[in-house]
Design a protein that fits this description.
pyridoxal phosphate; aminotransferase; binds pyridoxal-5'-phosphate; 14% strand; seven-stranded mixed β-sheet; Aspartate Aminotransferase, domain 2
Length: 395
């Protein structure tokens, strides 16, 4: 059976006859007698103990997500960053090296470099698609490798199975942040990754209502993360889990429309005379088309492009949009626009911006569920304004 179908029909742990999965807003649970309390606490029998670490709504979400990622188990957290925190504290110790793919979410790099750096963990960034650089970096005997594929905003691709072989040969764990594609469009565990991570407030929620995180993988890999959750309290609320469980039911249908729209917009932008470069996984000229076709089931709704005329033109374009919203999030019904060089990547030095291709004319769109003609109308009129601005500057 298709994984999405299985997820839709995942049974709610505390049954009843409610057709839609209900929500279990409770902090604690009744035990029949002292023996049962003792057995549940020790883990001898399965059952809920306290919602810091067990709750039916949260478990329901975790089990559905695990099914969709084609694996055994998952553990939910208060946010994507809380999931990254759990990952490091569970799987790293003082003196360990970590490799981070360049282009990984900025706050992830900051967390690992700045905070874990203070505890003697060394994080090194490696160009995501540079095989020689990876081979060289593995000489530092890293314990863990964190990657995102495709990267955001430039849609570079990591070869997950190649990296997983390299990681296995060197005794390192490979963790893939799959937020951008969702389990509908890529299943990294099928390509040899050890763990897959999501910031769930993006496509899994799909309507920008919640903040959350989840990690999925084999039971033996998830169990230590659950132990950390029990002691740290970085848990997802039952309400968030309930929203996300219902979000998973419509994920496949929503992703199809996100991608259909993104393809139309990417093609329209590519044929526009005043746009230098379009970055998207649809782009036939993408250097990694072969990897994309073997490792991805579908494409990314995030696309980026460069306007002529640098920051002035880019800002004029952004400020001229009438419908598309100025927002740095991804994975919403609404199409959103971002100027990476002065927001998400604003903390990069000029040198880093150049190295990683974050130019002043770069604009990122995360395509939503509006009708594509309406999106094109808005983009077209904003480009006219941005071109006028550029002409005025030249004169
Ligand atoms: C948003 C995001 C995160 C951070 O997750 P939060 O839920 O905001 O803490 C991590 N990785 C990626 C790829 C993201 O887009």
């Amino acid at each position: 059976m298709d994984l999405s179908t299985l997820a839709i029909h995942q049974e709610y742990p505390q049954g009843g006859d409610s057709h839609a999965a209900p929500i279990s807003m409770t902090s604690a649970y009744d035990f029949v007698n002292a023996q049962e309390a003792s057995d549940r606490f020790s883990g001898l029998v399965e059952g809920n103990v306290y919602s810091r670490f067990t709750n039916p709504s949260v478990s329901h979400f975790e089990q559905k997500l695990a099914k969709m990622e084609n694996t055994e188990d998952a553990v939910a957290f208060a946010s994507g960053m809380a999931a990254y925190l759990a990952l490091a504290i569970t799987y790293l110790k003082q003196g360990d090296n970590v490799l981070l793919a360049s282009g990984i979410f900025g706050t992830t790099t900051h967390l690992y470099r700045q905070y874990f750096g203070e505890f003697g963990i060394k994080a090194t960034s490696v160009d995501v698609d540079d095989h020689r650089a990876w081979e060289k970096a593995f000489k530092t005997k890293p314990k863990m490798v964190l990657i995102e594929s495709p990267t955001n905003p430039l849609l570079k691709i990591a070869n997950i199975s190649w990296l997983s072989n390299l990681a296995k040969a060197n005794g390192a764990l490979l963790v893939v942040d799959n937020t951008l594609l969702s389990p509908v469009n890529q299943r990294p565990l099928d390509h040899g990754a050890d763990l897959v991570l999501h910031s769930t407030g993006k496509f899994i929620d799909g309507q920008g209502r919640t903040v959350g995180g989840v990690i999925a993988g084999k039971k033996a890999m998830i169990s230590p993360l659950k132990d950390f959750l029990r002691s740290s309290g970085t848990c997802m609320s039952p309400f968030t889990a309930w929203v996300l469980s219902h979000g998973l039911d419509t994920l496949k249908a929503r992703m199809a429309l996100h991608i259909q729209n993104a393809k139309i917009i990417a093609e329209w932008l590519s044929s526009h005379p005043n746009i230098n470069t379009v970055y998207s996984t649809f782009n036939q000229a993408h250097e990694q088309t072969d990897i994309i076709s073997t490792q991805q089931i579908g494409h990314s709704p995030v696309i980026s492009f460069e306007v002529c005329g640098g920051k002035e033109s880019a800002w004029q374009f952004i400020d001229s949009l009438k419908m598309i919203t100025r927002c740095t999030n991804i994975g919403d019904t609404k199409t959103m626009v971002t100027h990476p060089s002065t927001t998400t990547h604003g903390r990069y030095t000029e040198e880093e911006k150049q190295k990683y291709g974050i130019s002043d004319g770069l604009i990122r769109l995360c395509i939503g569920l509006e009708t594509s003609n309406d999106l094109i109308d808005d983009i077209e009129q904003a480009l006219v304004q941005s071109d006028k601005k550029q002409l005025r500057e030249v004169v």
